[in-house]
UniProtKB/TrEMBL annotation:
Protein name (database record): Cryptochrome DASH
Residues in Photolyase/cryptochrome alpha/beta domain copies: 2-136
Family matches, as InterPro entries: Cry_DASH, Crypto/Photolyase_FAD-like_sf, Crypto/Photolyase_N_sf, Cryptochr/Photolyase_FAD-bd, Cryptochrome/DNA_photolyase_1, DNA_photolyase_N, Rossmann-like_a/b/a_fold
Domain of life of the organism encoding this protein: Bacteria
Cofactor note: Binds 1 5,10-methenyltetrahydrofolate (MTHF) per subunit.
PROSITE patterns cross-referenced by the UniProt entry: PHR_CRY_ALPHA_BETA
Flavoprotein among keywords: yes
Length: 429
């Protein structure tokens, strides 16, 4: 009568969830659990919240959807709040759990938490099994060991595309047997120390958390609008729902997997046709993989001022006034201001915008890049530890950029990507 606990984190889905599938195959009963980790709602050493209201709201919606989908299979989601190394072992004892299944982490703090839980479970003679569920390519299938992964994306991409295969996504389970799960109750934003968010009608897309919404978005972007076929041409857009896929928030929370998206792209290419744009979406998923594997390779280095380089060109200063102007969209650049206001009011910003505001922060304001990355961590609805810190280090010149120093001419960027000032007019009214 084996009982397993599935500890959900940023893998809030039923489709293509190896953790869930493995637990079901090895056990008779499953206890699906989500723990609101207290440390995720603290203020960081940079003075920003680790999780802001936009992402927290998206998380609450995703958990509600996950509970609904688990209930359809005969189970449900048990919600706890506190420190995982205390809360998870409590449930293990209560339900006499023999094994805990969880997604594998690569970033420093997440790995620390995983280790603390594992140590406590060891005392209870309960095993912790981790599964790699976040990438397009499985780490074991890469044509190099983690320590030998090329530091330049192009070299990584070419060899990986040539020599590695992408595994098929796991089918969703048909049924789950569970012990009786306590009534589902989510904390309110206020209980997490956060304020309710107001929606802004100018937002590019009304993001709503959950696997159901993720699949709905994919169907809209692929099949209803066929926007995928012109993704490469439109991806540098800045206004509206369909200039880019907007999958990032659902990917970050694991409401959809990269392999599921890949399988759908392949299906789309068969039915509607393949072109540069359909490939480009896979190319972007590969960037996401690259940063995750870089974190496995370099571990804590991405959080250091000097990143993965030994020398640092930018200043390490903090100018409260300049930081406040950047956050509140009152700098001397209207293009930067429009982007920063979009982020502040919606929790989202286009890829083009992100590159510009990060370059401005590092090169024009000449401040410690990690402050910018920490503000993004609080604010972004689609925050992903590896993509966020990896991209910031890249733009600060201390990451994986093969060029010594990447500097954006903000005025030129504004005239190239917001020629008619539509974006600036939208946000600077």
């Amino acid at each position: 009568m084996k009982t397993a606990l599935v500890w959900f984190k940023t893998d809030l889905r039923i489709e293509d969830n190896e953790t869930l599938i493995k637990a079901i195959s090895q056990s008779q009963y499953i206890i699906p659990v989500y723990c609101f980790d207290d440390s995720h709602f603290e203020t960081t050493s940079y003075g920003f919240k680790k999780t802001g209201s936009f992402r927290a709201q998206f998380l609450l919606e995703a958990l509600e959807d996950l509970d609904t989908n688990l209930k359809k299979l005969g189970s449900g989601l048990l919600i706890v709040k506190g420190k995982p190394e205390i809360e998870i072992p409590k449930i293990v004892q209560e339900y006499k759990v023999q094994k805990v299944f969880v997604k594998r982490e690569v970033a420093y703090e997440e790995k620390q938490t995983e280790k603390l839980v594992q140590d406590e479970l060891f005392k209870l003679r309960c095993e912790l099994e981790t599964c790699s569920t976040s990438t397009l390519y499985h780490a074991e299938d890469l044509p190099f060991s983690i320590k030998d992964i090329p530091d330049v994306f192009t070299n990584f991409r070419k060899k990986t595309e040539k020599d590695a295969v992408i595994r098929k996504p796991f089918e969703k389970p048909l049924a789950i047997s569970s012990h009786e799960i306590p009534e589902f109750r989510l904390p309110f934003l206020e209980e997490l120390g956060l304020k309710k968010i107001k929606s802004d009608k100018r937002a590019a897309i009304p993001f709503k958390g959950g696997e159901t919404e993720a699949i709905k978005r994919l169907n809209h972007y692929f099949y209803e609008t066929k926007s995928l076929s012109k993704y490469k041409e439109t991806r540098n857009g800045m206004i509206g729902a369909d200039y880019s896929s907007k999958f990032s928030a659902w990917l970050a929370m694991g409401c959809i997997s990269p392999r599921y998206i890949y399988a759908e792209v392949k299906k789309y290419e068969k039915e509607i046709g393949a072109n540069d744009s359909t490939y480009w979406l896979i190319f972007e998923l590969l960037w996401r993989d690259f940063f995750r594997f870089m974190f496995k390779k370099y571990q804590t280095k991405f959080f250091l001022y000097s990143g993965i380089k030994t020398e640092k060109v930018n200043s390490k200063s903090l100018n409260e006034k300049l930081l406040s102007q950047w956050i509140n969209g009152t700098t001397q650049s209207d293009f930067i201001n429009a982007n920063m206001l979009e982020l502040k009011l919606t929790g989202f910003m286009s890829n083009r915008g992100r590159q510009n505001v990060a370059s401005y922060f590092c090169n024009e304001l000449n401040m410690d890049w990690r402050l910018g990355a920490a503000y993004f961590e609080e604010q972004l609805i689609d925050y992903d530890v590896c993509s966020n810190w990896g991209n910031w280090a890249y733009l600060a010149g201390v990451g994986n950029d093969p060029r010594e120093h990447r500097w954006f001419n903000i005025e030129k960027q504004a005239s190239d990507y917001d020629k008619k000032r539509e974006f600036r007019n939208l946000w600077l009214k």
